[in-house]
Design brief:
Blueprint (H helix, E strand, L loop, with lengths): L13 H4 L22 H15 L6 H8 L13 H14 L10 H18 L15 H12 L8 H33 L8 H18 L3 H8 L10 H20 L4
Length: 262
């Protein structure tokens, strides 16, 4: 019998065929755990933990079996292979994103949904490499789509507009988080002294010299306000505020588009 929700996978996913043909595997050897004593949830959780700690390239059936102290072949009672496992991992992480029940305030609800997405992506940075590249559409993904679209019911929009709004929010979240990852990488390299120019003192001196050259060249008055006002566009202290400012602008624009004149 297939696990609950397996019948919701689309036909192109490895999960759709799982359980419909002969499974690999057999009696485990030695002291390894038998397939019957494992659960799919355990396998998926272990794989996510490995990906979080070591990157998704470290995930393999053998590696997960080692973590679970199980025979590698016993995993195949629950997972068809690495591709199936990756789909399950991605869908499980969609399940940790909180989609609020409709409160009657669609902007507040979409905002809460977007912030929960961001928190999940920041916890599992590797996931961004796969978003959009694997049309998995597993049970949690479908439920999240259903619930997020339902947040807009009171606007009485057509399905295409509702889908476009949800996708616009999803795209903003992904783009914002990717920008944050870039900032974090630069900050890490600065801390390690890996960027050209050396440490922070040398970088500040080099930036001041650069600003002076730009000022002498002329034509960069708006850009130089960043230096003159001591602004750091990549500041960790303003990261939340910057993300939420852009999100509120997006939601305001959506409201203007669907409720003109209000």
């Amino acid at each position: 019998t297939m696990a609950s929700g397996d019948d919701l996978w689309p036909p192109w996913s490895p999960a759709a065929a799982f359980g419909r043909g002969p499974r690999r595997g057999g009696p485990p050897r030695g002291r390894a755990r038998a397939g019957a004593t494992l659960s799919r949830a355990e396998i998926v959780d272990a794989a996510i933990a490995v990906a979080d700690a070591e990157g998704p390239e470290a995930v393999s059936m053998r590696r997960i079996a080692q973590v679970l102290r199980a025979g590698t072949m016993s995993l195949y009672w629950h997972v068809a292979g690495k591709e199936h496992l990756l789909d399950l991992m991605l869908d499980a992480l969609v399940g940790e994103v909180q989609v609020p029940a409709p409160s009657g305030n669609w902007r507040a609800d979409l905002r809460a949904y977007a912030l929960s997405q961001r928190r999940s992506l920041l916890r599992h940075r590797w996931v961004t490499d796969y978003i959009g590249g694997r049309p998995a559409l597993g049970p949690n993904t479908i439920r999240a789509a259903e619930r997020s679209m339902a947040l807009l019911d009171k606007l009485d929009l057509d399905a295409a507009t509702t889908m476009n709004i949800v996708q616009a929010v999803n795209t903003y979240v992904l783009g914002g988080v990717l920008r944050e990852f870039q900032e974090l990488q630069v900050q890490h390299e600065q801390a390690q002294g890996q960027l050209a120019g050396g440490g922070s003192a040398q970088l500040r001196a080099a930036a001041a010299d650069w600003a002076a050259r730009l000022r002498s060249a002329g034509g960069f008055g708006h850009f130089l306000q960043i230096f003159d006002q001591g602004l750091d566009p990549d500041s960790a202290e303003t990261r939340d505020q910057r993300f939420e400012f852009g999100l509120d602008c997006l939601l305001g624009g959506i409201e203007a588009a669907v409720r003109p004149g209000t």
